[in-house]
Design brief:
This protein has 8 helices and 11 strands.
Length: 275
């Protein structure tokens, strides 16, 4: 967390709100979130640059700068990029680690309570190498039923573990892997190579469907995730299985099972519906 829908929501918010703005000053409050650059160099290279575009790749939020460099943010568990026009609550500013002051007086804070996320300044070449190792974007037209079927046939991993492998599919994490597998009626522990082409087609549609719906609801908030304005995501009310171990399956009313046996992460499934 945040996964694809949450980082996509943040990136879209930022793109609408701050693209075209100039960074006039930078404040580094907690330098331990920086990667591949020292605080003084970060400030020097970012100051006076214009923000050309804000977008997402996998679980990364990317700010393209007029200098051809990129600020790449990986929020991980408690990170958020928040736009502050002076009305942002002090409780949200309290854990700011990096703040960008814009030419119109607003600020963009990277807030991270546990400081497990990262802020990296990359050249275009470094960024290309970074994302070159990532897998297909599940909302890209190239993520077809056939593409997923080929991915699955070549893997001995449990299907859920493969879905969360960023080298195979970029952006999927624990929440949406659980949800997609439930929708497709596939046991998360089943070997990926044992998934039939027909099941792969259902799974591809389930992945695209749950991600698209979550983006429409601005992501899932349990505790720490916030969009760029500091608001919570609303998809938590639409989750079928994740976070609901012990509750009734929405499809067949059997008791949902929670286990850490598959990949060390919490997996929730319906033993009756998923096989």
């Amino acid at each position: 967390m945040p996964e694809l829908p949450e980082t996509e929501t943040i990136a879209r918010d930022l793109d609408r709100a701050i693209t075209g703005s100039r960074i006039v000053d930078v404040r580094i409050i907690r330098a331990d979130v920086l990667r591949e650059v020292r605080a003084a160099a970060f400030v020097r290279r970012v100051r006076e640059a214009e923000i050309a575009r804000c977008w997402r790749r996998a679980k990364l939020v990317v700010l393209d700068l007029s200098s051809s460099e990129r600020i790449v943010v990986q929020p991980r568990f408690t990170g958020a990029l928040l736009i502050d026009d002076g009305t942002l609550p002090e409780s949200e500013r309290r854990y700011a680690t990096v703040s960008l002051e814009l030419s119109d007086g607003r600020r963009v804070h990277y807030r991270d309570i546990r400081r497990l996320g990262t802020v990296t300044l990359m050249t275009a070449e470094r960024f290309a190498r970074c994302v070159g190792a990532l897998g297909v974007e599940p909302l890209d037209p190239s993520f077809t039923r056939e593409h997923l079927s080929v991915l699955l046939r070549g893997s001995r991993q449990a299907i859920k573990k493969l879905l969360m492998d960023q080298r195979a599919i970029a952006g999927l994490g624990n929440i949406y892997a659980n949800e997609a597998l439930w929708r497709a009626r596939i046991d998360p522990s089943r070997g990926a190579s044992r998934v039939t082409p027909g099941e792969a087609a259902l799974l591809r549609d389930a992945i695209v469907g749950v991600l698209t719906e979550s983006i429409e609801h601005r992501g899932t908030s349990f505790r720490d995730y916030r969009d760029a304005s500091g608001a919570r995501g609303g998809f938590v009310e639409h989750l079928a299985v994740y976070g609901r171990a012990g509750a009734a399956c929405p499809r067949c009313s059997s008791r949902l099972i929670g286990t850490h046996a598959i990949d060390g992460r919490m997996t929730v499934l319906c033993a009756r519906c998923q096989s």
